[in-house]
Amino acid sequence: RRQHTCEKNMAFTLYSLIQAAILCVNAVAVLHEERFLSKIGWGVNQSVGGFGDEPGVKVQLMNLVRSVRTVMRVPLIAVNAVCIVLLLLFG
């Protein structure tokens, strides 16, 4: 009988879940405000609200994007390097 080898390659592991999360954080980290976000109406000028107003979902998402770009820039370099090394070592 032949063993199916594709079952081994299609495993859903914790490492693949972590890789997916890292890819999503990388995608958020590379968004450029003037080139991409302002063209779809998510720039700095569009998020101005009044004093005491609750920030909307769009403003909160833009704050999240700015925070990820600011805080995660240096740690993402290290995390990406570790992922590359692990992929080179273990396939």
From TrEMBL:
Q: Which UniProt keywords apply?
A: Membrane, Protein transport, Transmembrane, Transmembrane helix, Transport
The listed locations are: Membrane
Chief place of localization: membrane
Q: Which residues cross the membrane?
A: 12-32, 71-90
Q: What GO terms fall under cellular component here?
A: COPII-coated ER to Golgi transport vesicle; endoplasmic reticulum membrane; Golgi membrane
Q: Name one Pfam family in it.
A: Yos1
Q: Which residues form the signal peptide?
A: none
Question: GO BP, one example?
Answer: protein transport
Role according to the record: Regulator of endoplasmic reticulum secretion that acts as a key determinant of brain size. Required for secretion of extracellular matrix proteins. Required for correct brain development by depositing sufficient extracellular matrix proteins for tissue integrity and the proliferation of neural progenitors. Acts as a regulator of the unfolded protein response (UPR).
Q: Its family?
A: Belongs to the YOS1 family.
Q: What is this protein called?
A: Immediate early response 3-interacting protein 1
Phylogenetic classification of the source organism: Eukaryota, Metazoa, Chordata, Craniata, Vertebrata
